[in-house]
Amino acid sequence: MALMGDSNFPSIKSIARINSLERAHEGTQFFDCKFYPYTAPGVDPVFAVVGRSEVVVCRPLPSSSQGFEVIRWFHDETAKTPEKPAFFVKSHEETGYNSVVWSQDLETGDPLLCCSGTRNTIKIYNVVKDTLTRTLAGHGREINDLAVSPLSPAILASASADTSIRLWSLDPKYSEQPCMLMCAGEGHKEPLLTLAFHPSGRYLLSGGMDCVINLWTIPELPNEATGTDKPTIIHYPHFSSSAIHTDFIDCVSFYGDLILSKCANEGKIVLWQIENFSTSPPHKPPPPSHAPTRHEPRATRSAFGGTYQRLLQFEAPDTPAFYMRFSLLKGPGLRPLLCIGNDKSKVFFWDLQSLEEYVEKEPPKGKARAKQSSLSATATPSTVMTEEELRSASQQLPPHPAASSTGLLNSGLTVKKPKSHNPMYSVDDPFVALQPHKTHVVPKVNFAARQAAWSVGGEWCVVVGDQGMIVVMGR
Fold first, then answer.
1. CA 25 to chain centre
2. Residue 363: is the preceding peptide bond cis (ω within 30°)?
3. Which of 190, 184, 189, 175 is nearest to 204 (CA)?
4. Which H or E run contains 354?
5. Is the dihedral of CA 219, 220, 221, 223 positive or negative?
6. pLDDT tens string 360-401
7. Contacts of 85 (CB under 8 A, 6+ apart)
8. Which residues partner with 471 through β-bridges?
């Protein structure tokens, strides 16, 4: 039984397959999609999808019979074409774009698309003028993810296989030296796959093939180094852990002050928190001197005291490959909805607010109430425990303060007791993955979903993936 009706989850409105513009490939492998974020909810929802040499800008149409319209199509003539058929090309060998984010021209307000992939440059397209306006160069290898700061559309972050993160200024006055900051040195030892800004814009998450998640503290930008040939360099993250996941980490996101993350081959999304991390007043970003170094040989190192706590897991079966990324709908007045697709043409949804609303039932008459275990387990600084060891430890620990207050959906994000043992809502064991609250099966097609995206007001959800598939859902 769901607390919200099915009508509040999006339903499939249209399904389409897009070839490359030059039709050299039948069914472009799309890796990323994003809705334009700088409009009011419900106002002209426009989304972009990228894959191979294609950047396609679309608008969903209200009529389900019409699906969506293509309003711009950029084709990168410089992108190489795989010598072998796409069927035999592994995702990490795929040539072309894999990431896209929206920005704005500071002078005209025109929508900009920032695109990256297997080349070591970022291409920036002006959607209104239908032109490539700029190329950012500096990384040594392919660029696997992009993020725009919530503080300004002129601050762009990129995560590269060269193990570094760069923050760029898109302000024209810094066009000669656009790189403002680099996170490099002692953060990652293998290619990066994902990054995400905190809503405050002062923290940045990163994850990659070394199975490490880092939290970087970002200074106020632009600073005195902006526009010079000596950008600010951050050598150490303020939090680093290799104990949360066991494989390539391909998706991270903040949820208030909590963190959602996923890796390949685990079949789940994990909700967790950094102990003592808070952005609520009077807490301020720690100075660089407080960052722990690699001289401390621990699986988890933190400048905030303690380590981390696992809170919940969400079951996402058949998501073995990396570059299968989730999307979280969040914003004022919106019910937070988590979405991910798999490689069996299925799309899963969770209503995170329902986990807070679900209140524990009284046990049946004559039966004792089951013992409530802790909602999270803490990994020790010096050892990496197995899941069974952590489960046993969690039953011995008292509830953490952050797991005993109210507000799963707030920045202090906590979990109330479950109403029953319904596997979709039971949150008493952080190692039992919650089943999806809603599952859609895309009919008449077998494809792997790579990314989902929500419109600003949550009216639309788009899922893209292999074989040029674009699935438009609405509510």
1. 28
2. no
3. 184
4. helix 352-357
5. negative
6. 443 444 444 433 333 333 333 333 344 444 444 433 333 333
7. none
8. 15, 463
